[in-house]
């Protein structure tokens, strides 16, 4: 039994490869967030004050002023959409625990504006140096 292997004409392979490479390059650029505007520590590290440290990959950790917070979000340019937030459950008097209700945040200069799930602004954190 004889098998015949057919090859596509070279001009089709070359054009297809170039088109696929260009598409992959464009897909890699579109929506590839640098996260540079978000990376760093936001808020105060003083006792009973909220703060949040955001990594380039969207991982975050901090405190709402009482409870420790941690999780992994999705970064797109200057905006982070927080994934589920894991939190300790300590009871603290006189501490506004608004940061635990964060759904997203947007870096606006040296301020991180934080929004709840309804898109309402719930707080702001200044960038720490």
What does this protein structure show overall?
The structure is a single chain. With 129 residues, the chain is α+β, with helices and mostly antiparallel strands. It has one helix and ten strands. The strands form two sheets. It has a five-stranded antiparallel β-sheet, with no helix packed on it. Strands 5-6-8-9-10 form a five-stranded antiparallel β-sheet, with no helix packed on it. A hairpin with a 4-residue loop joins strand 3 (59-63) and strand 4 (68-72). The radius of gyration is 23 Å and the shape is globular.
List the SSEs and their pairings.
Layout: H1 10-29, E1 40-43, E2 51-54, E3 59-63, E4 68-72, E5 74-76, E6 79-81, E7 85-87, E8 104-108, E9 111-115, E10 121-126
Antiparallel strand pairs: 1-2, 2-3, 3-4, 4-7, 5-6, 6-8, 8-9, 9-10
């Amino acid at each position: 039994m004889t098998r015949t292997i057919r090859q596509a004409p070279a001009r089709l392979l070359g054009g297809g490869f170039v088109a696929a490479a260009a598409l992959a390059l464009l897909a890699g650029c579109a929506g590839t967030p640098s996260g540079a505007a978000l990376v760093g520590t936001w808020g105060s590290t003083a006792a009973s004050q909220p703060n949040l440290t955001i990594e380039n990959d969207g991982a975050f950790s901090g405190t709402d002023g009482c409870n420790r917070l941690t999780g992994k979000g999705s970064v797109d340019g200057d905006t982070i959409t927080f994934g589920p937030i894991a939190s300790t459950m300590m009871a603290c008097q006189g501490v506004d625990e608004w940061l635990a209700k964060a759904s997203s945040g947007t870096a606006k200069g040296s301020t991180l504006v934080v929004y709840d799930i309804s898109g309402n602004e719930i707080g702001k954190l200044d960038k720490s140096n």
